[in-house]
Structures are given as C-alpha cells and as structure tokens.
Specification:
homodimer, Isopropylmalate Dehydrogenase, 11 helices, about 40% helix, binds 3-isopropylmalic acid, oxidoreductase (chains A, B)
Chain lengths: ~350, ~350
C-alpha cells in the first residue's frame, strides 16, 4: 500500500492537490495519505519552516505530493531554501524531471508549432550547482560590498544525472539526449559536464547526442522546440529552460515535475511547476492539470505505469475537449479526470 | 573624425561587417577604420588570440566594430575567454546593451504578438558575475573530480549598471525597469542586486519598477514580451534572456549588441549577437541587418544620434519590404541600407 505524504501548501496549492488526490484515489484505491501543513501559513504561525521531526516523518513515506508553497509576505528564500530545496537536498532528489508536451486542444504561443509535435523531457540536476547554497557577502550595505554565489559540481553528481538522462532516452522513441551548458564561459564546470557526458554517451551507442550552449538552447526552445527529446542540464539552467519549455507548451498551468531519488533510498517529491498564485486562490478556478500530471509522475515512479498512463489519457481527453474562453472550475476538472481515468 | 577598429572575424563576420562599414561610411563620411585580423584564423596561424600590443592599439580607438569570431575547430573558451570576454573586461564594458524590437515585416514565432508591440532593451551587466573566470577544478578526470564556478558581484559593479538602466528608462516613453535575478535561491548576490536596485529606484520616482525571478522572466518573454521596457540583469541571466528576446523578435539574425563603457574611458564594442555561422559563410547570403543595427548603436554611443536614427529607419524600410521566401543577398541588402540611410 503506497504511503504518500501530502503537502498541500499555500494559495491554490490545497485546491489543486485535492484534485490530484481524487485522481490518485480513483486509480490506486487504498493509497494512504498523511497531510503536513508546511508552507507560508505555518511559518507565519510558528516561524518554523521544516522541523527536523517532520523531516524524519516525511522520510518514512513512499513519495511526497506537494501543491505549492509561498506567499508574498514571506521574505524571499525562506520557504525556497528552508523547505523546497531542503527537501530536494535532504532526500537526495538529484533528478528533477520536467516533461513538456504540447497537448491537443492546447493553444501554445508559437504560430508554427502544432499539438503533438513537442514532447520533450528536461532532466535537471537537483542537488548541486548554484543551488548548493555556497555563497556569502562581505561589507554588506557599504560601497565595498561584495557578494558571491558558487556553483559546485562533482563527478558523482554530474554522472548520476547524466546516466539517468541516457536511461530515459533509451526507453523513448527518438532516443536523443541534448546536453545544455555554457562550456565556453563556465570552462571548469562545463568541461566536467562535457567529459562526463561523452563518457556515458560512449556506453549508449544507440542514443543520439548533441551539445548546446544554454543561450542557444533557450532560443531553440522558442524557435524549434520539436527538436528536443531528452535534455540534461545543471540545476540553474534547468530552472530557466523548463519555464521556457512550459511557456511554449501552454504555460506553467500544465507543467508537472518530479524531484526524484531514483534509487528510492528517500522519497521522491512531485509538484506542479506553478506557484501558489495568491491572486486566484480560494476562487476554485485554478487549473489542477499540472498537479494531476505530477501525480501521474508519482505513480510512474512507484511502479504503477499502467495507472500513470490512464491519468495521462484522462488529461489528454480533458485538454482536447476544452473550449477556449470557457472558464474552468477546479473541482469539476478533478471530477472529470478521476472519472475518465477509471472509465 | 571617428577612429574605428574593425574586427571582421571569422565565417560570415567579414561579409556582414563589410555592409555595416558601407552604411557607416554613407552616413558618417570620413570614418577612419583600421582592420584587425583577430579570430579563429589568426589563432590557427599563430596560436595567439589577442597580443598585448594589439590590445593597446585597440584602446586608442573610439569604438570597435566586430563581426563574429569562432569556428568549431577552436576549443571552447579559447576565443570567448581570450578575445570577446577579454575585451569586455579589459575595456570595462560594463553595459552590455541588447535591444529587441519586433519590426514591421518580420514574422516572429509568437502567434499573438504583432509588429510594433515589442520594443525592449536588456541592460546586461558585462564585467562581473559568473563571467569573472573565478572557477577551478580538483582531481580532474577521477571519480573525485569537483569543479566550481563563482559568481562575483560588487556593489560598485551592480550599482553602475543599474544606474545606466534607470538613465536609459528615464529617456524612453514607458519609463519602466524590470530587475531580473533569482533572489530566492541566489540569496547573497540577489540581495545585493535587489537592495541596490531599490536604492537607485528611490532616486527615480518617475520610473516604474518591477522584479522578476529569471525563470519567470524567461517565461514571460515568450508569453508577454510586450510587458518589458528596460530589463536590467546580471551577466549570465542577460546572456540567456537576450537570446530569448532575440528569438521572439525574429531571431539572432536581427539582434544587435553593444558592449559599452559609458564613460568613454575605453572604447565600446559593437557586434551582432549571431555567431560566425560557418555553414553559410562565403555564400553571400548572411543577413547583415544585425551588424548594421550594431553600427547604429555605435553611432549613438559616439554622439551621432541623428545618423543612428537614419540607419534605423533604413533597416525599418528594408525589413518592411522583405517578401517571405525570397532569399537575400548580403551585398544587396548593404547597398539598399546605405542608399536609404542617406536618401
Ligand atoms: C521556488 C524555486 C526555489 C524553484 C527553483 O528554483 O528550483 C522553482 O523555481 C522551481 O523551478 O521548482
Ligand atoms: C560567445 C559568448 C562568450 C558570449 C557570451 O556568453 O556573452 C555570447 O553568447 C554573447 O552573448 O555575446
């Protein structure tokens, strides 16, 4: 029986997570879910972000389903570093998986790209790089202030995520991996990534490879997103590129993500890419599709591929049937998805 | 009499620079141009990238016009670090200026954005951040390898580029500056940028301001590029965002840039954003518009605003008259632009 920790979070988080759970319950009866009230609300109440005891409890679950945390009233970094990144690092979620598809029925912003043509997945490194928190400042608030941020990259960390990307590509139809970095400027980290990529590629003669600088990749994601299959890149580049990929496939309202510890030594975490959207919270109009697609990634990770496929099919049907301009109701979308997934 | 150093460079560099010079000569008769053969070809011949003597000579000019340098046969980083970045740093070109306009006649990739609606300029910091070259590696080529890249940010460097951005915004119609960073993860550098931005903003009550995380900005550049006026950001974020801005306004074939030392203590450098494009070099089919627009930025910087405006008008007329599908000839475009600019 799958044991899921649920962090609904703030803003629209609880609204969309409720639909994701509805769908999960439908396709996998008997899921045990425990709720954790982490996020801005708890921080305001207790000034605690993630007590160690809660971290230990979370570790005992098979997976975490997260809605969205954050609120303009919380200082930048508090919940990001204290909760989201803390979990990614504590649970060694080194594969930050972000698929982007242009679904039928979704009007993307690109005039020359048709539904069905874009189906890519970004394998973003999740535990290293500029997210390591290795920065500091001196002479703060004086004219002499200097602030640093350090990108830390290890062969260990780079190799394992590149291996994951190749393994995923080998299971896909086009079998292609694109490495994105900035080897011409970030020569040390870039060289480590490129050499490791070449070494792993040599073990996969069946997988095609290419390299692109991050600025070029950002451009091609807009002009030719069809060209990508699996993209592997570092933590910060992945953060930026996945938002572009989401934008060209209909927006972050549809973008799912998984922070995955592939070995299962720790729970993996699944969350929509969108934030807590305080402007529309409480109105029942948030699109739960990204949360539901994140639940599908969760099912996949726990080995329930068939259930995951049924959720994806339900989403495909839902999106194909949407009429532009007709406002959606969060609950109704969840009901339809749950019903379709078991039909 | 303006003294210009010309670095035509590799691939299509010489072809497009020839047109930029044609236009410059037309609108500003008597420009003195000296050619410098830096780039991949020279490196192959001499294994030298930029001798100190040449650097000193370049320093004696009012501006540098650069085509494109690079070639797949040169190892990554050699020309980038040794020439382009060397010049930006040696000549303290801290304002890396990248305007993006969706010109009439240009079919951008975005279905819902019409010509005339996008007119933004990115003021990218040019002398700090992850471009400082402060990185290294240990235990190279072993399983224990670690590679670092450090982003260095000073109050001095951040403040001067933010001041430039506000000064530019104050001269524009919409008078708005967007700061882009990643304050929720890069908390030290992000805080320095945000505090400095707020301090400078307080001196400009007439300029509207906003802040966006880099991932959100990357997305909004695709979904709502119209919202931006002046964007100020760090060196690496600027590298990525300007390629997105170029992509949504018709591609890097039209994107100009200036690496500017606003005080004029050193020469500023003007170059198209595109590279040397070896695949189409020598065929006379490269679009010289980006190089010509870079020459217009050069004219502007040297105080010849009226000539700059005439070059921009010539480009506007050229682009408005283009018939989709009709191949262009580099020389003919240059001839038309030069003729129009003085008509
Ligand atoms: C909220 C923030 C820390 C996070 C990140 O930068 O990874 C977010 O942008 C994301 O992509 O999940
Ligand atoms: C060639 C490279 C060093 C350069 C940069 O990263 O700045 C280029 O991408 C640019 O944008 O001018």
């Amino acid at each position: 029986m799958a044991r899921i920790a649920v962090v609904a979070g703030d803003g629209i988080g609880p609204e969309v997570v409720a639909q994701a759970r509805k769908v999960l319950d439908a396709v996998l009866p008997g899921v045990q879910a425990t709720e954790y009230d982490l996020g801005a609300a708890r921080w305001h109440r207790t000034k605690e972000v993630l007590p160690d005891s809660v971290l230990t409890e979370l570790a005992g679950h098979d997976a975490i389903l997260l809605g969205a945390v954050g609120d303009p009233t919380v200082p930048p970094g508090v919940l990001e570093r204290g909760l989201l990144l803390k979990l990614r690092f504590a649970f060694d979620q080194y594969v930050n998986l972000r698929p982007s598809r242009l679904w039928s029925g979704v009007a993307g912003p690109l005039g020359n790209v048709k539904p069905g043509e874009v189906d890519l997945v970004v394998v973003r490194e999740g535990t290293e790089g500029l997210y390591a928190g290795a920065g500091g400042s001196l002479h703060r608030d004086t004219p002499a202030e200097v602030a640093t941020e350090e990108s830390l990259n290890t062969r260990h960390g780079v190799e394992r995520v590149i291996r994951d990307a190749f393994a995923r590509a080998a299971r896909r139809e086009r079998r292609k991996v694109t490495l994105v970095h900035k080897t011409n400027v970030l020569t040390h980290a870039g060289s480590l990534w490129a050499r490791t990529f070449d070494a792993v590629a040599a073990e996969h003669p069946d997988v095609a490879t290419e390299y692109q600088h991050v600025d070029a990749a950002a451009m091609f994601l807009v002009t030719q997103p069809q060209r990508y299959d699996v993209v592997v890149t570092d933590n910060l580049f992945g953060d930026i590129l996945t938002d572009i990929a989401a934008a060209v496939t209909g927006g972050i309202g549809l973008a799912a993500s998984g922070c995955i510890n592939p070995e299962g030594a720790y729970p993996s975490m699944f969350e929509p890419v969108h934030g807590s959207a305080p402007d529309i919270a409480g109105q029942g109009i948030a699109d739960p599709v990204a949360a539901v697609l994140s639940a599908a990634l969760l099912l996949e990770q726990l080995g329930h591929s068939e259930s995951a496929a049924r959720v994806n099919a339900a989403v495909a049907a839902e999106l194909a049937s949407r009429v532009p301009g007709v406002p959606l109701r969060t609950e109704e979308v969840g009901d339809r998805l749950a019903a379709h997934a078991v039909s």
